[in-house]
Amino acid sequence: MKKWLRRKRTSKEPQTHTHAPTPATPSPPPGHHICEPGSVLLQDEHRQRLVVLIKRSVSVTQEIWDNHYFYALERFAELVQLHPASRQHHHSQSGGLLDHTLEVTLRALRLSAGVILPPGAEPEELLQNAERWRFGIFICGLLHDIGKVIGDQETVYKDSDGKYVHWQAWHGPMPISAQYVSRYRLTRGEHIHGLHEKLGITLLPYLLTQETSFWLTQDRSLLGQMMATLAASATGAGIIGELIRKSDRASTSENLGPSTGIQEHVDRPLHAKILEALQILANEGKIKRNMPGAGLWVDNERTYIVAKSMMEKVREFLLAAGHKSIPQSPLRLMQILNEHGLSIPPVEGGDIQQAIVKDEQRSWEQKLSFIVIPNETLWVSGTPNIFNGIIIPVDSKGNEIEHNSAHVPPSAVSATPANDHPRGAGTAPPIPTPDDIPPWEDHAPSDALEENTSRPDEAPPVPPQADREPVRVVSRNLSTKPAFKSKPGAPSSPLRSQSEFIAWVLNGIKYRRVRVNESGAPVHLVDDYVALITPKIFDLYLDDNKAVANALGKSRDKQLLQVQREVKKLNAHFMSDGEDFHRLVVRGPRRESMISALLIKRDQFPELDKHSPNPILERCSN
Q: What is the C-alpha separation between 489 and 384, in angstroms, rounded?
């Protein structure tokens, strides 16, 4: 098997980059980086350790390692340079994409040592093909997120004439020693699921030598799993897809701690941590919204955050993520946001804005205490459906008033790193360009980076009280026309407000993190029911909500039992002869199998109206 990689090359040697000594390059402007060879980027102490461990995991000769494995590593590093892995989530620091990819690749190779490769192979086949499959896993690890530099990020570099050029990874790496700068694209809340995974396939040839490309294509089963894995396909990824997914999750969860996104400066300002926690809790659907008992109420311009309960959740989130010195008082957390201009100041001063929330459809209203944040600050992934009801700010006497402007000074919103601008902002984060550069749409960015170079560890200035717009108070009876009324939103499940698990499932379906009616999916539609496949759907929930899992104890069985118990307490599931869970028959073309599911009436999930029942599933008659 190794003859393929050891044999004398009769074809053209793969092109390698040799770099003649260059004169000392002046320090780049703030926010810029210098394009370096892959070998130099991999010399970082942390990356060097990961590369050594990857080499130990594959157990190949030095010749094969240098010519094929390290070749792919260098080529990968040259493409991604110091791009971050996310806008403001995991590995969002400079070089985060390279670090995250090496971690995922190493984990996947280590996990592969515990499985039979190829799956189901005869003993004589194992010796011949195990290394080929391990190399396929190695390549999939390198490519699983590389598409982000094409689909999610925009990059420009200076050419030899000092002009900015729009870089495209399909044309190869940027020139060595060129100054470059990148940003995440402004998506305005639009998200194409799986785009960066599919784009990664397009860069596969760049990482392969001629020998390894022929070697991989000799095994069609391996090639099929690699392509399905890289395309994030719901089916066909097999053991390779499972290894990459597990490794990706582990690398992500380990990075989501006190130093997330700011590896160079761990001690981030507290107001930045509080705002980031609110953004994550809100944008990932962890908080109930726009219904009785919710922590968030969204109108056209601003989001009303229930003060005490939400600040307690923020504190719990930060402590669970490993942050230290978090104030115990929820009031102090609100004060910190106000002091840094991240919230809209209450009309009558102080730290809390009172408002009456009216839900006319439910004949429900309640007076609550809020901290108010502009939508463009909180909803980094785009403003969600707004409340189909009335929110009326009131003063201490219960009189309706006109709220402060939802505008927040730009300096106050820079709680996130400079290269991690929220997608919900009205304009894209600027990138430096000389005046003679055409607009971004014509292959170059449009503005200057100077406004985008504030260090993440610098606290933004507190807006002086005198500069704030005076508030016009309107005293009128509450029965008159409300100050503003939200637009009707899309139909929403009444169970969202009662269960964090249900809210997580529905948000997962919306953003394609939870699959429906697909092979191996955790959710299916059967007759008039939504089938939650157990224990798969509950396992996914616990994997995606580490803080919840940790709070339920160390035993996985107890964690699953507790989550299932909470869902059953909703009394929304279908029971038959006292049984909560039901058997479903999967009628495939060649065989039948059985799965277990919790069934909930479909009319409880108006979000799934467009989905049809799965024709190969049916309830098993007892």
A: 9
Structure tokens at 155: 């990059």
Nearest Cα to 204, choosing from 76, 27, 388? 76
Structure-block tokens of residue 397: 């006497």
Helix (H, G, I), strand (E, B) or coil at 392: strand
CA–CA distance, 26 with 520 (Å, rounded to integer): 54
Cα–Cα separations (whole angstroms), residue 571 to 541, 557, 568, 608: 20, 22, 6, 20
Q: Angle at Cα 186 formed by Cα 426 and Cα 389, nearest 5°?
A: 50
Measured distance CA(374)–CA(387) in Å, rounded: 15
pLDDT tens for residues 166-181?
999 999 999 999 999 9
Q: How many CB atoms lie within 10 A of CB 257?
A: 13
- β-partners of residue 281 are none
* Assigned token pair, 619: 């309830």
Question: How would DSSP label each residue in 157-178?
Answer: EE-TTS-EEE--GGG-PPPTT-
Burial class (CB in 10 A: 0-12, 13-18, 19+), 192: exposed
* Strand extents, DSSP E, 385-484: 390-393
126: alpha, beta or left? (left if phi > 0; alpha if psi -120 to 50)? alpha
Contact (CB, 8 A) for 73 and 38: yes
| pTM, two decimal places | 0.49
Task: Copy the structure tokens of residue 133.
Answer: 């499959």
DSSP-assigned letters across all residues of 277-331: HHHHHHHTT-S-BSSTT-SEEE-SSEEEEEHHHHHHHHHHHHHHTT-----S-HH
Within 10 angstroms of residue 249's Cβ, the number of other Cβ atoms is: 15
Whole-angstrom distance, CA of residue 403 vs CA of residue 474: 10
DSSP 485: B
Convert the pLDDT of each residue in 429-466 to its tens digit: 444 443 333 344 433 343 433 333 333 333 334 334 33
Three-state DSSP class for 449?
Answer: helix
Task: Please give the domain boundaries of the chain with CATH numbers for all domains.
Answer: 34-255 (1.10.3210.40), 270-418+454-467 (no CATH), 496-619 (2.40.10.200)
Within 10 angstroms of residue 268's Cβ, the number of other Cβ atoms is 21
Alpha-carbon distance of 319 to 447, in angstroms, equals 39
**Band of the pLDDT at 273, cuts 50, 70, 90?**
confident
- pLDDT value at position 592? 80
Query: How far is Cα 411 from Cα 205, in angstroms, rounded to an integer?
Result: 44
> Whose structure tokens read 């003649």?
20
Cis peptide bond upstream of 118, omega within 30: yes
3-state secondary structure of 131: helix
Token pair listed for 70: 């390290």
Of the candidates 476, 271, 266, 304, which has an alpha carbon nearest to the alpha carbon of residue 387?
A: 304
Helix (H) / strand (E) containing 584: strand 581-587
Cα separation, 240 vs 104, in Å, equals 12
Q: Rounded to an integer, what distance in angstroms lies between the CA atom of residue 442 and that of residue 159?
A: 16
CA gap 151, 195 in Å, rounded:
7
With H, G, I as helix, E, B as strand and everything else as coil, classify residue 577: coil
Where is average pLDDT lowest: 7-16, 87-96, 162-171?
A: 7-16
Cα separation, 480 vs 473, in Å, equals: 15
Residues 69, 58: contact at Cβ < 8 Å? Answer: yes
